[in-house]
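User: Show me an example of a complex going from sequences to structure tokens.

Assistant: Sure. Here are the input components:
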Amino acid sequence: MLRFLARRLTQSVLTVFGVLTAAFFLVRLAGDPSVLLLPVEATDKDIALLRSELGLDQSLPVQYGKFLLNVLQGDLGLSLRQRVPALDLVLERLPATLELALTAFVLGLVLAFVVGLVMRLTPSPRLRAAIMWLAFIRQAIPVFFFGLLMILLFSVTLGWLPSLGRGTIYHLILPAVTLATYELALYLRLFNSALGEQQGQDYVRTAYAKGQTRTRIILRHMLPNALLPLVTIAGINLGMLLGSAVVTETVFSWPGVGRLIVQSVSQRDYPVVIAGVLMMSLVFVLINLTVDLLYAVLDPRVRLS
Amino acid sequence: MMSVPKSISTMAAAFCLLAGAAMATPAAAQSGQLVVAPSSDVLTLDPSLDTSPISLNVFKNIYDQLTDIAADGSVAPLLAARWEAGENATAWTFTIKTNAKFHDGAPVTVEDVIWSYQKIIDDPKSPVRAYLTKVRSIEKVSADKLRFTLSAPFAAFDRQVSLISILPRKVYEERGAGFAQNPVGSGPYKVVRWIKDDRVELEAFAGYHGGTPKIKTVIFRPVPSESARAAALSSGEVDIVPLLPPALVDRMSSRKGVRVEKVPSNRVIYLGFDVNNPVLSNLKLRQAIDMSIDRNTITTRLLRGLGHPIGQVVAPVTFGYDPAIKPTAYNADEAKKLLKESGYNGEPIVFQYPNNRYAFGEEVAQAVVGYMKAVGINVEMQGMDYSAFFPLWTSKKLNGMHMFAFGPSIMDADLPLGSLYETGPARAYWSNAKVNELIAQQRAETDPAKRRAQIGQIWQLSKDNVPYVMLYNEVQAYGIKDNVKWTARPDERLLFKDAQLAK
């Protein structure tokens, strides 16, 4: 177990290092930020001065070396635009992103669980098909567009919910539902087939033979076994949710890390981009590590291989 | 274990409760509050660190500058009561008002003014510094007078100072880096709170020397998505949406409770040429391009009225506009004739343009190419992100034809002259001795009428030599709630000192 943990940890550190390096070179290759920071009337002299102040006149390997040294000391540099530590800007917004992603994650699972059970318990195949179709249609609509539809319906037409910003629980509803329903179809299909797989098992037949009701068999016996694959996929999806929250954050003006990174890319505020990417990759790696460890606890075969 | 049907009903009940509670919340319609939705948040509230227009909008409500640019393009007193230029516009003396106060009650002194300028000039990392490269020294003349000595003539310096916000030295030094989060200025509004990417909340400053603003609370709420901005205006969460794209103008004008106001801006969209390019060095070819474009159709049909054809690089509202210089008339036959005379032989012309910067920029570029192709010019389009385009412009690496725009914040022709015409500092490919002479003359000319005439001559020389093809003066649309009395400005600034709410 310890060796497994050590190996996974080493892999994680390497991953983060790789992400850092890739982020550094990508942003540097994307161009010189000093020109974009200055107003149009800036002369070549102004540009050269700012460039040397920012250390951008040095060679790329030298810049990279200095960057790594600073990172090892926990210093990701100052934002070029705001002149405050880039990491602070990211950490300020991390709670907003986590709040949205985790709410959507839990909501998505609960919805999948409830709707999945309704589908299994209902005697009507039409209802079952209708639910599945709805879930598929939802998944076929891009998040951006679906978000706007939600705003038009619940904010503009009905006036029930705020369409922008963060603050109260009402502000959370539209973005969370938009994000949560996106993967509902995937969850439902998975859940449904997992339940279907249990259907033919010996223990189910035994339960029927004992004269138990269908509802009771599904809830008491089949459900616990069918939940495993759902939980596995959900863990991976949490990471995806964090990444895809960018679009949702933009539609609903949610002040999160994704929006910060996108803005910083277009403003060429490199330290912020790198700090943002680093933070997201750390969260991602942490989730993966947790999932791996859970696997190892739940399934001894993983530890051996 | 709780039975499932029961838990479902509990959840359903919870959802109904949530929805019900939301319905019961009264709509945010308290009087005295105005919400405006720009596309992005300020980057900092420290005006000595940032020059971006989005930030300037907020700065101008919190801070005062020595002078102000009025909505009609003229220069007006603000912290300075009056000023005079001497020695060919190289010495500028400003007399400041004595009744101006900072939000903490301290008076605005000449020392604060000088310190604010010196701080920027001494900071090599500040982009604001580029506004002041001509300032050689600043000195205090008396308790209410200060003098700037410039290293070169600059007739528009009284406008240039409208870009520099005056900071309270004492508070700034006390708060250090914390100043940007909790700033103090002497403008009509003071900062209540800034929640990054969510809101900047401002409150009317009762001690403002220009009279207390009428609306108590002004909130800047950044909304990045265009459609979401329009939706927030429809739902009533937002009172003003600046810079509506042409596609949304019609939709918003037909909405109840919302009006769309259109204002001709200070921005001119134009095409530029590398006149040293072997193909584009041909004057007749450039003239043919100029005539091949139907500006009227582009502005009325494509832009739905959000543009007026123009023949010079400054807008009517900008100082230096010459009404005698008309937009080039569309004449495809004449263009074809010129093209034949030019000896152009179908060589491809590379056309680079930013595709995410101007309203309908991509569509306009396509229309331009369509017109050029119609008379037989072969164009190769290269649309790109503005952040990729701008460095190419700065380093003069746009080696064919390009599309760009100028909208000088100080609403004076000097900025485009220096950036687009003057040999040496300019990002220009065309160089003309007479033009250089006129630029130097107008810079040292303190008589506005004479200066205007000199600038007009430059526009005529430009029209004769076609280093640029002027396209149109951008008209901007604002979505405004009916109960808000507010007039949009030509320079995109969002100033709320004089805004009012109808009862």
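The lines above are the inputs; the final block is the predicted structure for all two components together. The two ends of chain A are 12 Å apart (CA to CA).
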